[in-house]
Structures are given as structure tokens and as C-alpha cells.
């Protein structure tokens, strides 16, 4: 006997998506989340077209659109001149039901998923239940969970580790997390300042070069998120002061007075990939399996794509199908994480870190040429919107 057919570690977007999909298909699921509530801190906010397509049948996309902001195009921009290459997502009409990006905070998605799960009797979400170990058996697997000051086991026929970059599940399985950390620290800062009224032709997602570095601006309902970087010769501690943040914001728009900065969060960017997505009855998904630069907004989306793929495979196996389908999950998703998600994000990050003015001009000219050529633009948008990667994964057997 088991507590559920599938046990999941982590109630983030990946774990909750897997739970919703599995539960909607009649699979009994228990989700164990270490925190007492859903996290609210600044995290991902970009949703690509195929992700919106996948979530649509569950009523999630409509709920997100009611709380988010459509991004019909994005751009790479020289600052302060305003020269730019603009990438129009409408070229994807006919390839997707949602030919645009949606800007909506990750925390809102998690709340929507949790609300949808409440109407799915097969799914139970347990907060304050920290997974600390994994006990594997021949016919079942159990999470060792710390809950209300006590340790207990919660068992299932199969398990999913969707518990993030510091995954206790991955650690318990003895799976390495190979890769490295980029040298720079990114600082997220939110503000109500209306950049769209001061920077001509600004897209809701804009990646910008400036004289001594780079920044990006992502628009959400009522607020802009700025990704900022420490100036050469300055320390992170100096930059995180009120004066340091104001200085970087004034680089974007040199207005008199102060910016109303609501929130700041520094973080380091990792590039990592687990050498295996599956061990026995346990599979990894999302940040527990892969990490990449946030440039291009592909990490969370890739994790959600993992969840859909894995939920499909588990549903089939639990209905009596061949367990080797779980190996197919790894064959389909891991190469895409490596060759499409991590590689594309690294390319995006490397481009924006370029400092040489002539090299920047050449990069911008190449991007403008791509945006002006209908055939090249569509191929580029299929790749950067993650549609191409999903199609490649589906072709793997």
C-alpha cells in the first residue's frame, strides 16, 4: 500500500503543474512543500507561447491573462540612442494559439495552479512538509519528510523531485549537478516609474546595451522589473545601497529626483545540468534538473514543459504501460535542456554582456536583418519561443 500513486517534492510552478495534470487524469498525488505558504519573492515572469498553449485546457492561461500583460514583441536596444531590433511574435500565428509572450509573476501562476488543484480531489498539497531523504523500494518509493517537528515517510509508486536548484531529492539520489556559476551578480529592482513614456518605442520586454554594461526592462501590470548589474570598480554591497540602486536607475532615465523602488533582490546565475533525470522510481524536473541564465525567460517554461512530458509518461505507466517510458522522458527533455534551453540562454546572456562598441553594432545589425527577413524571423522566433525545442523533443523515440 502507498499513500498516493505519485508523490511530488516542491509546490512551485513545476510541481504544481505536474500535480494538476496528473490529478486531472485520475492519478492520486501528494505534493510536499517545505514552506508554510507559496513563496512571493521576485522570480520568473515570462511565459512563452507553447507554455500558454499547454496550460490553456486547464483554465490556467485565461486566469493568468486576467492578471498579466501581453507582450506582442520584444527587442534588443542600444541605450540611450534607441536603435533597436524588434521581434514581432505575431509571425507565430498558425503555429500556436498564443502568438505572444505573457508577462505574469511566477507567484501568480503558483497561486492559480493551487486554486485549480483545490477542485481536483485526487491531489493533496501539504505545506510545511520538508523532504529530507528518499527511500527506494522495488515496488514503491518514499519521501522522508519533516512535518510538524516529526519525521515520517510519504510513499508512492513513483516520485518527482521538483524541489528546485538545491533539490533534496536529487542529493538523496546521489545525482551530481554539473556546471558552473556566471561571474556577475544580477540585481532585480521593481519600480512604478513609467519607462514606456520616456523611452521611445520600448517593448514590454527589452534587453538593453549601455555604455558601461547592460540592463533589461520587463513590464508587468503596474510595475517594471529592471535587471541591473554592478558597475566596474564598485562592490555588490555598495550597489545594493539605496544610493547605488538610484545611480543605476538614473542611468536608464536621468530624471531629477528619486525613483520609487519597491523591491530589490540580488542573485547569481547558474548554468547546470543533471547527468541523469531518472533513477529508479524517481524523476527530476525543472530547476532540480537544469539551471540556465534567465536571459530569454526559458528556465521556468522549460520546467513546465518537463512537468507535462513527465505527467504524460507517468499516466501511461500507471495505467499499465511500459516503465521504460520514463527513460523516454529523459531522452526527450534532457537534450533539449542542454542544446536549446541552456545553450540559447547562454547565447542571449553572452550577447548582452558584449562591451566592444563595434561588436555591438555588428550584433545589432545582424539582429535587425533577421527581424526584417520574414523567413529568418519565423525560424528565429520558433527557436526563441521554445516551439522548435518541443517539436524536436517529440520526435525523439
Helix content: 25-40%
Classify the secondary structure makeup into a structural class.
Answer: alpha+beta
Give the strand tally. Answer: 19
- The N- to C-terminal Cα distance equals 33 Å
Mean pLDDT: 96
DSSP helix count? 12
> What is Rg?
21 Å
**CATH architecture group name of the domain at 4-69 and 101-179 and 271-353:** 3-Layer(bba) Sandwich
Low-confidence stretches: none
CATH class value of the domain at 4-69 and 101-179 and 271-353:
Alpha Beta
Strand content: 25-35%
Question: Which outline best applies?
Answer: globular
**What composes the largest sheet?**
8 strands, mixed
Topology-level CATH name of the domain at 4-69 and 101-179 and 271-353: FAD/NAD(P)-binding domain
Quick structural summary:
With 397 residues, the protein is of the alpha+beta class. It is built from 12 helices and 19 strands. It starts with a strand and ends with a helix.
Structure, explained:
- It contains 12 helices and 19 strands.
- By secondary structure, the chain is of the alpha+beta class.
- The protein has a domain at 4-69 and 101-179 and 271-353: FAD/NAD(P)-binding domain, CATH 3.50.50.
- The strands form 3 sheets. Strands 1, 2, 8, 9, 10, 11, 17 and 18 form an 8-stranded mixed sheet that branches.
- Helix 1 (13-24) links the parallel strand 1 (4-9) and strand 2 (29-33).
- It is globular and about 65 Å long.
- The two termini are 33 Å apart.
- The mean pLDDT is 96.
Give short descriptive properties of this protein.
alpha+beta, 397 residues, 12 helices, eight-stranded mixed beta sheet, FAD/NAD(P)-binding domain, globular
Amino acid at each position: 500500500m502507498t499513500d498516493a500513486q505519485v508523490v511530488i517534492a516542491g509546490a512551485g510552478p513545476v510541481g504544481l503543474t505536474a500535480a494538476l495534470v496528473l490529478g486531472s487524469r485520475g492519478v492520486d498525488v501528494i505534493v510536499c512543500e517545505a514552506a508554510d505558504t507559496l513563496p512571493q519573492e521576485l522570480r520568473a515572469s515570462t511565459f512563452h507561447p507553447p507554455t500558454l498553449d499547454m496550460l490553456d485546457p486547464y483554465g490556467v492561461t485565461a486566469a493568468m491573462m486576467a492578471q498579466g500583460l501581453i507582450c506582442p514583441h520584444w527587442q534588443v536596444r542600444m541605450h540611450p540612442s534607441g536603435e533597436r531590433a524588434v521581434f514581432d511574435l505575431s509571425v507565430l500565428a498558425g503555429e500556436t494559439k498564443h502568438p505572444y509572450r505573457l508577462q505574469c509573476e511566477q507567484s501568480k501562476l503558483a497561486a492559480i495552479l493551487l486554486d485549480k488543484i483545490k477542485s481536483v480531489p485526487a491531489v493533496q498539497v501539504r505545506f510545511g512538509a520538508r523532504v529530507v531523504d528518499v527511500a527506494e523500494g522495488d515496488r514503491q518509493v518514499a519521501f522522508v519528510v519533516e512535518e510538524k517537528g516529526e519525521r515520517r515517510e510519504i510513499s508512492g509508486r513513483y516520485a518527482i523531485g521538483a524541489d528546485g536548484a538545491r533539490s533534496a531529492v536529487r542529493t538523496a539520489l546521489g545525482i551530481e549537478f554539473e556546471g558552473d556559476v556566471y561571474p556577475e551578480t544580477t540585481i532585480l529592482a521593481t519600480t512604478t516609474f513609467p519607462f514606456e513614456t520616456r523611452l521611445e518605442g520600448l517593448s514590454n520586454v527589452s534587453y538593453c546595451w549601455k555604455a558601461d554594461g547592460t540592463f533589461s526592462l520587463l513590464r508587468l501590470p503596474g510595475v517594471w522589473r529592471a535587471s541591473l548589474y554592478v558597475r566596474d570598480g564598485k562592490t555588490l554591497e555598495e550597489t545594493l545601497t539605496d544610493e547605488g540602486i538610484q545611480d543605476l536607475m538614473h542611468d536608464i532615465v536621468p530624471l531629477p529626483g528619486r525613483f520609487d523602488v519597491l523591491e530589490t533582490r540580488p542573485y547569481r546565475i547558474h548554468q547546470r545540468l543533471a547527468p541523469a533525470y531518472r533513477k529508479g522510481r524517481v524523476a527530476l524536473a525543472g530547476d532540480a534538473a537544469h539551471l540556465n541564465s534567465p536571459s530569454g525567460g526559458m528556465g521556468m517554461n522549460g520546467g513546465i514543459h518537463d512537468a507535462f512530458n513527465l505527467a504524460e509518461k507517468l499516466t501511461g505507466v500507471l495505467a499499465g504501460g511500459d516503465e521504460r517510458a520514463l527513460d523516454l522522458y529523459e531522452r526527450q527533455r534532457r537534450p533539449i535542456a542542454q542544446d536549446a534551453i541552456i545553450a540559447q540562454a547562454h547565447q542571449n546572456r553572452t550577447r548582452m554582456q558584449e562591451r566592444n562598441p563595434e561588436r555591438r553594432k555588428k550584433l545589432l545589425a545582424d539582429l535587425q536583418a533577421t527581424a526584417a527577413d520574414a523567413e529568418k524571423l519565423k525560424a528565429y522566433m520558433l527557436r526563441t519561443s521554445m516551439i522548435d525545442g518541443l517539436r524536436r523533443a517529440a520526435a525523439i523515440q
